[in-house]
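ok trying this again, last paste got cut off
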Amino acid sequence: MSTAAEVIRSQINPMVLMSLGASELVSSEANEGRPALAFWARILPFNAKGKRMSRPAKMRVCIELTPADLYDITVVHSKAGEYGVHFEMEGVGAEDLNRVLLSLDSDGDRE
């Protein structure tokens, strides 16, 4: 992994990666050649009614380092051969990175 990807990885709690079922962590380049960390995660997708489904789907997570020293997070999924954005957030600080990643797979509901 590149130095930037290693820094991004070091700011993510290992338990957060485990809870997402993260695998195949790689150094990547995102928009405009910015350094990024990308990995596969198992995330509960939304159904047509906006509710979480009970079975996780494999999605690609990309955490991009911006010139402002913040992170842009994009999660992409594939359904029937078509790609769509599941989640996108810009300007995430290092202090919020773990919370945002955990929220990818949870609505915060307690049923």
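PB: full thing came through this time. Residues 3-46+54-103 form one domain.
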